[in-house]
Please model this.
Amino acid sequence: MLDRKLIREQPDLIRRMLRDRHLELDLQPLLDLETRRLEITNQVEKLKAERNQANEHIAQKKKQKADIGGDILAMRKLGETIKQMDGQLKEVESGLQAALLSIPNLPHESVPRGADESANQEVRRWGMRPEFAFTPKPHWELGDVLGMLDTERAAKISGARFVVYRNTGARLERALIQFMLDTQTQEAGYMEIFPPLLVNRDAMIGTGQLPKLENDMFRTAEDDFFLIPTAEVPVTNLHCQEVLQQGLLPIKYAAYTPCFRREAGTYGKDTKGIVRQHQFNKVELVKITHPDNSYAELESLVLDAENILQKLNLHYRVKALSTGDMSFASAKGYDLEVWHPGGGRYWEVSSCSNFEAFQARRANIRFKDSEGRTRFCHTLNGSGLATSRLLPAIMENYQTAEGGIEIPEVLIPYVNGKRKITPQGEFA
Model:
């Protein structure tokens, strides 16, 4: 959520920065509501001051045993007026809040300007694309032949865009999750969290998924709970409505969870394999930081995610997202895209963002600075990583001419020392 004071005092700046996001927004209704809110607030404060003075006057007259009947009547009328105006203020605040929740974050000055993903800028690449003496297979063919991935049986029990991980597929998926958690907690200093998978509406609003993306979420109607689209939601909201001590910052969390999203995509596009699923596994990295350090923390967050790909020896590239491709809540973001030789393309495996105070203002996450002032924290998160893109990358990059898959060196300890998956679909 944007600072309403900033909107009120610099509306032209807000309009210009939103245009950078290719959004033409009429701010006047919001500005009118903010003006009305300030007017009512000032009137109510004056009336309450009058009521306090009247109370003192009545108390004095009581001591003097003077008649206070008329004063009591006037006090009641004043109370009714204040009650009415409080109701008006509540209504204006509700409308103002709804308007504020619909406005995306402002892009940082360093974000590439552009209409869509074509304006994203490549920052760097790591590693080399593997060369094969044979035509590499896509992961869905490997997963079927080796008995690792079963989308047909998943469809019987859940429908399209679900998968059953089987045998070596299930074990390799678990190994990846454990490896990523160990790396981030033991090497990068993140605290491991295992949060609830169902969250309330306030939590979804706090991190910016609602109201904009409600139709993309899975919701339980009776309780108004949401299956989490990412661990970002419960983990960031661990500190909602809190005032933190500056010495605790930055707070760094790593969390594995299943994630749930309505992955509509384009009809008939990317339906093969497991890169677009309604349910997928992900290790999420979340930081809550001091505002002065958040952009340095963003760069280190990206490096933490890259470290996983480097340890797995997977070729990837890092892209700075343009204003037309960044998420609703992000002020600046990067995508990590890993090479899939079987499909002959890069797939995003991680998105890392700095939200500045946008989420913290919505979730009311604050800290006391060195001068004793209460300020909003900055929040960041990044995938560290999503296995629905990572496991296919391993399968395709490490496949052999014989039809099996080699196990990346760093994962061998997580599969009881096994070094490959044979063409018969077993560890060896």
In short: The longest strand covers residues 279-289. DSSP finds twelve helices and 18 strands in the chain. Residues 4-101 form a domain with the Helix Hairpins fold (CATH 1.10.287.40). The two ends are 53 Å apart (CA to CA).
